[in-house]
């Protein structure tokens, strides 16, 4: 009978470890999914910044930086 109780105790220990590992795996999966969403958002931000940089460089190349500012009137 001690063999049966010993085997049952070992099986219970394995089941508990498996349950904890399943939870840890789910937690890691959730973190990974959150990180991918953040990366996707940053990619969008990078694309917008690259577009703004191109527009800025074009404006600097063409001299179309907006209205010129005249020096203040001096008497």
Task: Characterise the protein shown here.
This protein is mostly helical and 75 residues long. The chain has a domain at 26-60. The chain has 1 helix and no strands. It has one helix spanning 2-62. The longest helix has 61 residues, at 2-62. The N and C termini lie far apart (111 Å). The mean pLDDT is 89.
Q: Secondary structure elements and their pairing?
A:
Blueprint: H1 2-62
Query: Biggest β-sheet: count, sense, barrel?
Result: none
Distance between the termini: 111 Å
Number of helices: 1
SS-derived structural category: mainly alpha
**Residues in β-strands, percent:** under 5%
Radius of gyration: 32 Å
List the helices and strands in order.
H
Return the average pLDDT rounded to an integer: 89
Which regions are unreliable across 5 or more consecutive residues at pLDDT < 50?
Answer: none
Write a concise keyword list for the protein shown above.
mainly alpha, 1 helix, 75 residues
Summarize the structure.
The chain has 75 residues and is mostly helical. The chain contains one helix and no strands.
